[in-house]
Amino acid sequence: MMDKTRTRVAVAGLGAIGADVVRALDQGIEGLSLIAVSASSPDKHRGWVAGLKSAPKIVPIDELAEVADIVVECAPSKVVRSIVAPVVERGKTAIVLSVGALLQNEDLVDLARAHGGQIIVPTGALIGLDAVTAAAVGTIHSARLVTRKPVAGLVGAPHLVENDIRIEGITEPLRIFEGSAREAARGFPANLNVAVALSLAGIGPDRTRVEIWADPTVTRNTHRIEVDSDSARFSMMIENIPSENPKTGRITALSVIACLRKLRASLRIGT
Ligand SMILES: NC(=O)C1=CN([C@@H]2O[C@H](COP(=O)(O)OP(=O)(O)OC[C@H]3O[C@@H](n4cnc5c(N)ncnc54)[C@H](O)[C@@H]3O)[C@@H](O)[C@H]2O)C=CC1
Ligand SMILES: O=C([O-])CC(=O)C(=O)O
């Protein structure tokens, strides 16, 4: 029987991030129960899901909000709206990984506000959002992100296709984009969530500057942030080991798990 004091969590998408988050919930996170998952091809995942201790239900994404208190979105950006809207409309919590999609669906935040729901964006593949959100309480003068990714982490991005920029076979680092976080999200919807996360933590998608390099000399997805504010100046770099999905760093799923642990933890560290 379900323990009513536990918060019911559902996970939408069982790819690189979602599968790790499901495994962690199944192994146990204080105060949380894994109740349901969604997959684009349920039959492919049925055996794996049945083998979990918690044996969550597999339901379509639009049913997750009914059965869970918290829904973790780990799916492609095009389905973010159909996952998040029903959750926040019910005054519940959505943890969103496809952060870039929030820029095309800004009203989701208004919807959450109107119904007492909440959208949580974990630090994900980035570093330092604790410091950025703290600095944003004061005044941030500038925020900049420089991303370097191996070619495999960038191929197929709309910005490259639309501008006929070929990166397969390059032998030296090539700067493929410079612009705002909003433009980066449009041009690299599956590769630059970090730019949008930084911008939402700091000075917004239009003032946050982004540079992207396709770099055949790196094996890791590398992000450097530089922030100048009236309380501190800082720069930080993270070098992410790609997961089974070359666009996604391994640390991203761990960031979600850390975020879930914080929800009900007796000791909570960090902003
Ligand atoms: N915030 C951050 O720092 C980061 C965010 N991301 C984003 O997180 C999201 C998930 O990333 P990954 O796990 O690496 O992607 P992935 O491609 O490995 O997994 C996505 C999964 O969603 C499933 N899916 C597609 N449509 C669905 C539907 N209608 N219902 C249920 N499942 C569906 C796919 O079959 C796939 O298994 C992506 O949008 C990615 O861009 C990725 C890395 C870092
Ligand atoms: O660094 C990573 O692994 C993922 C990334 O850039 C993103 O999705 O924004």
TrEMBL record:
Gene3D superfamilies: Dihydrodipicolinate Reductase, domain 2, NAD(P)-binding Rossmann-like Domain. Belongs to the L-aspartate dehydrogenase family. Its EC number is 1.4.1.21. Keywords: NAD, NADP, Oxidoreductase, Pyridine nucleotide biosynthesis. Residues 13-122 form the Aspartate/homoserine dehydrogenase NAD-binding domain. NAD(+) binds at A125, N193. The active site is at H223. The keyword Oxidoreductase applies. The iminoaspartate product is unstable in aqueous solution and can decompose to oxaloacetate and ammonia. The gene is nadX. Pathway: Cofactor biosynthesis; NAD(+) biosynthesis; iminoaspartate from L-aspartate (dehydrogenase route): step 1/1. It is an enzyme of class 1 (oxidoreductase). Residues 170-257 form the Aspartate dehydrogenase domain. Specifically catalyzes the NAD or NADP-dependent dehydrogenation of L-aspartate to iminoaspartate. Coiled coil: none annotated. Transmembrane segments: none annotated. HAMAP family: NadX. It holds the Pfam family NAD_binding_3. It catalyses: L-aspartate + NAD(+) + H2O = oxaloacetate + NH4(+) + NADH + H(+); L-aspartate + NADP(+) + H2O = oxaloacetate + NH4(+) + NADPH + H(+). This is L-aspartate dehydrogenase.
